Amino acid sequence: VQATLGRAPLGAKRCSRLLMPAQLLAQVRTELLRLACSEPCGLRGALLDLCVEHGKACHDVGHIAVDPAVVPTFQLTLVLRLDSSLWPKIQGLFTSGPAFTPLKLSTGFRVIKKKLYSSEQLLIEEC
Fold it and tell me: For position 14, what pLDDT does the model report?
């Protein structure tokens, strides 16, 4: 997750890097493992989509097949939030102009779990 976020393209012409607080990484790890424990292949059977909320929009920043050798049985969408105190610093992020802006993520997130071979409803966990 951390490596994919580090390579995430944000904005058309600006270069940014998403910084993930250590406590967020631990919270995400715990939540993903908890949601995967009822699956036949555990976390190995997951497709993980990474998104970052920006205002009311959600920007796709990457996809991970946890174990490409395993047929995925469920999809997890991890929706991360930017630290709200950074809003004035990122207003121009999605506009033109060269710059490098490291962006810190908030510790709040949500995970949406969707079983790929089932008619069960979506499960949304807010953390």
Answer: 47
Nearest CA among 34, 44, 37, 52 for reference residue 93: 52
Question: pTM of this prediction?
Answer: 0.76
- Alpha-carbon gap, residue 54 to 88, rounded angstroms: 12
Tell me the two tokens of residue 69. Answer: 């050798």
Residue reference for tokens 């049985």? 73
- CB count, 10 Å around CB of 22? 8
CA 27 to chain centre: 13
Helix, strand counts (H, E) of the chain: 3, 6
* Amino acid residing at 7: R
Neighbours of 30 (CB within 10 A): 11
Residue 54: the pLDDT is 75
